[in-house]
Amino acid sequence: MQHLFRSTVLNVNLRDYTKEEVADWASCGDDLLHWKELLSQHHFIGAFDEQGKMAGFSSMNKEGYLHSMFVHKDMQGRGVATQLLSEVEKMAKAYGVTEITEITSEISLTAKPFFEQKGYKVVKSQKCRANQLELTNFVMCKRLF
């Protein structure tokens, strides 16, 4: 997961962020303690290709917060993110997230069009600190019916 995260950010997100921004963002994945914390607080799922190589991963917590959605740079546009999103939305429903509550996430410039196509709405644009730099992303949400 750590390698896939870093590779995706450095290659895919370079379309919408500067080299300095993606390098700073990717460095957030270097902290193994942070990964352990994420794994203890979120339920992660992975997608794998025919050879058993990780194609992507996503996560959801019990409050309906979608923390992670990363697809391998070589698996972009092949339906991996759609499948992962479907699975984490099922997870949210199993946790009891209903139309009264919603799935929320902080979405990159790169992923924003994908999430909009899947029914997510922008709540606000914001600047979030990666490591040293502040990057633009979007708080987005989707009500589950």
Give a written overview of the molecule.
The protein is built from five helices and six strands; from the N terminus they run αααβββαβαββ. Strand 2 (54-60) and strand 3 (65-71) form a beta hairpin. It is globular. Helices cover 35% and strands 32% of the residues. The chain has helices at 2-11, 19-27, 32-41, 80-95, 112-117, and strands at 43-48, 54-60, 65-71, 102-108, 121-129, 134-143. The chain has a six-stranded mixed sheet with strand order 1-2-3-4-6-5, with helices on both faces. The mean pLDDT is 94.
State the main characteristics:
single chain; 145 residues; alpha+beta; 6-stranded mixed sheet; 5 helices; 6 strands
Strand order of the largest sheet: 1-2-3-4-6-5
H/E element sequence: HHHEEEHEHEE
**Tally of helical runs:** 5
Q: Roughly how much helix do the residues carry, as a percent range?
A: 25-40%
Range of strand content? 25-35%
Please count the beta strands (DSSP E, at least 2 residues each).
6
Radius of gyration: 15 Å
**Overall pLDDT:** 94
Shape: globular
Q: Terminal Cα separation, in Å? A: 31 Å
Concise overview:
The chain has about 140 residues and is an alpha+beta fold. It has five helices and six strands. Helix 1 runs antiparallel to helix 2.
Write the layout of secondary structure elements.
Blueprint: H1 2-11, H2 19-27, H3 32-41, E1 43-48, E2 54-60, E3 65-71, H4 80-95, E4 102-108, H5 112-117, E5 121-129, E6 134-143
Parallel strand pairs: 3-4
Antiparallel strand pairs: 1-2, 2-3, 4-6, 5-6
